Amino acid sequence: MDIQTQTLCYHCGDLCLTENLKQDEKNFCCSGCLNVYSILSNGGLNNYYKLNLHPGDSQDKVIGKFGYLDNQEIAAKLIHYADAQKITVTFYIPSIHCSSCIWLLEHLNTIDSAIQENRVDFLKKQVYIQFNPQQTSLKNIAELLTNIGYEPLISLQDVVNKDVAKKDNLIPKIAVAGFCFGNAMLLSFPAYFGLSASDAQFGKVFSLLSLLFCLPSVFYSGWDYFKRAYQSLKQKNLNIDFPLALGIAVLLIRTLSDFTFNTGDGFADSLTGLVFFLLIGKFVQQKTYHHLSFERDYRSFFPVAVDVFEEDGSTKPVALEKLKEGDRILVKSLEIIPADAILLKGDALIDFSFVTGESQAIEKVLGEIIYAGGRQTAGSLELEVVRLVSQSYLTGLWNNEAFQKINTNKTKTFVTQVSHYFSLVLLVLATSTLLFWLPQNWQTGLNAFTAILIIACPCALALSTPFTMGAALSIFDKNKFYLKNTDVVEEMAAVDTIVFDKTGTVTHSEGNNIAFKGLLNLKEKEIIYSVCKNSIHPLSRKICDFLSPIKTLKVQGYQEHLGTGISAFCDDKKILIGNANLVMDGGLLITNAPQVHVSIDDNYIGYFEIRQQLRPGLKNTLNQLNNTYRTFLISGDKPQNSTDLNNCFKNNSDLYFNQSPQNKLDFIDYQQQQDKKVLMLGDGLNDAGALKKSNVGIAVTDNINNFTPGSDAILDGQSLTLLPNFLSFAKSTVKIIHLSFCIAVCYNIVGISFALQGKLSPLIAAILMPVSTVTIIAFTSFATHFSAKKHKLKL
Amino acid sequence: MTIIFFLIACSVILALIFLGAFFWAHNTGQNKDLYTPSVRILFDDELLGEEEEKRKPQI
């Protein structure tokens, strides 16, 4: 056997299986990559390959068709602006990943001069294009992008981030708060250092100016705190915003009265500082993943348009929501069935793995109903729609109540729980101090009353959660675990039950375990490899991967039989590779795993068995989890390779098979009724209900850009083995918040002891607040990083 | 010492100008994409070697 040196594709860096695809002395793995290279080199865009080594994405995949973009109605949904001279549009392109991508996509006009302007937003993976509609069309642009290897993802649910200004406008608010804080602080210094009697006139002006700086700080930057405090009052549950708003208001009133009655220097610097720090805390807590969406539903999984047969037999693309009952539709190979439909024509071999969790493609006969969401894996199909998209079997799940109402059984966060009592204690303390002083000296009483509200204003408390959580989120992020928001961390810490989905979660969606049952000599291996290499069918590719690297022989009379297999002549022998029907005229053992049978010259020589492979390290992970958590497996699949899985879970009865999406949801519901906090890991649409219902729903995916159902967090499949670490890290994070709360309370007690005596000077407030804030920030970030290290997470 | 009134006025106005500049930058979308420009600025017009430059087709 001759040993081949490994050649890597010049475009994408994949291993080249053939030497035939060459241009300019460069090797390519597939015609797609070669094609991209020739387009780019003809356009003078070779710089693309200079910026990074193998910058392209493998083109070895099926490419979508964009015929529907000529349909005005559909196109109008994507276009931002259109007139006779220009059209602007933003595409979401998942394959943007390096600087070469940016360079190439911003030099598109060297290929197509109709493109007037284009700009890439790397983090959002979006490209903004402005083009001349008289010279080209939206469809051509989409096809150009696809041809150079950047296929835009267009789906029903808008994947493009609209550039609408965020509602809360946090950044301008921080800018204003920072401006006011800086100026007010400068103006307060003279008062603290003492002004001589001759300079008293300055003091008055400084106070006035500081007071003016307070106004935008309170009424623009800090206004949200009042709004939320009012809401919380209406709901009769005092949240953290209530004492904060109270503190801000009292600070402003004290500053005003000090100025008007000339009773002191006011608290302008504390007030502006408080607002500034609070907003910074909010900013740290916000973490946006531009390229991820946690709210996706079935619409982003389905295609935008379907080919519908006209009266005369031709097809026309129609927007999915315009699809009517009785329409006859064409579904090509590897497309998704968009609506529940009856099979009229064609060999249906549908892969429902995403909908039901069943990993094996299912054959359907003419006249049978095919549920929406399956992916056709054989040839083209003709179908008649029987139910609208919105009413189909799969989408019906979204009508479940779990999707209708906001989940109320989520646990309250620590801060919400604490701040309710905190506010009550604060109010009682302040009023009783006032009542205590009133008979003796009403002025001291009022002083003490306001001083308590000022000093107890839970700035440090309000900051402890955002800073801890912000640090925790970025640590999770570095370990490829993306959380929707900070509340999820606390939910995770409370979890006691973990439910796994099987297909795609516990098992690899890609890496299958393949084995040949029978005996193969080298010659036969070469023959099978050479024949399978011609096919793009996923099973053929797996066989090729399994057998390679090996010599390629010449193949003649190659024929692909849709849905059954391939036949060919190679080395003067007749080869049949395919399912039992093709190779040995049907009727043989039905087993769990997919099989590919082989016969050479009508001699049956054996079959390839393709088993789903458990993720590496999974067993270890589950053993760790079993110590502290109840673990379950719930799968839409038939029971198979159970021995491997049984070893991972505590009891066989913890494994549930043949579960419908509704069953999964009910299972979670049942657990929750037993007062369990459930964490669910899933990947497909079939898990969407359960993910939504559970306390923490984690979508597991091998490619972050792929579709993931709506969830609380998205986990990269590689990091699944880190799950025990994530969970215990979440627990320590909550502990850190508790500790920093204790620190904050200590500062408050010190402050209140001053306040009770009515002795709180602006200087003490001005020192105490920043010191407590800095302590909290330093403690939380240090402790979070320390505990991440302890839990062996990447920093 | 009354000069201090003038100085304070100057400093506040200067700070307001900076605040205004920040708002202008924010509203024109300069904060929207903080990553891509950092890559874009590093692209030289020509990365091709000299010899390949000769082969470069006319556009």
Automatic annotation (TrEMBL), chain A:
Location, primary (coarse class): membrane
Parts of the chain that traverse the membrane: 174-193, 205-226, 238-255, 267-284, 418-438, 450-476, 736-757, 763-786
Location(s), subcellular: Cell membrane
UniProt keyword annotations, A-Z: Cell membrane, Ion transport, Magnesium, Membrane, Metal-binding, Phosphoprotein, Translocase, Transmembrane, Transmembrane helix, Transport
CDD domains associated with the record: HMA
GO cellular component: plasma membrane
Matching PROSITE patterns: ATPASE_E1_E2, HMA_2
Keyword Hydrolase (UniProt): no
Superkingdom in the source lineage: Bacteria
Topological type in the membrane: Multi-pass membrane protein
A GO BP entry: copper ion homeostasis
Domain HMA: residue ranges: 87-153
InterPro entries: ATPase-cat-bd, ATPase_P-typ_cyto_dom_N, ATPase_P-typ_P_site, ATPase_P-typ_TM_dom_sf, ATPase_P-typ_transduc_dom_A_sf, ATPase_P-type_domA, HAD-like_sf, HAD_sf
GO MF annotation, one: P-type divalent copper transporter activity
NCBIfam families: ATPase_P-type
Family that this chain belongs to: Belongs to the cation transport ATPase (P-type) (TC 3.A.3) family. Type IB subfamily.
Record protein name field: ATPase
Organism annotation: Pedobacter psychrophilus
UniProtKB/TrEMBL annotation, chain B:
Transmembrane segments: 6-25
Pfam families reported for this sequence: FixS (PF03597)
Record carries keyword DNA repair: no
Cross-referenced InterPro entries: Cyt_oxidase_maturation_cbb3 (IPR004714)
Keywords from the UniProt entry: Membrane, Transmembrane, Transmembrane helix
Highest taxon, organism lineage: Bacteria
NCBIfam families (alphabetical): ccoS
Protein name: Cytochrome oxidase maturation protein
Organism: Pedobacter psychrophilus
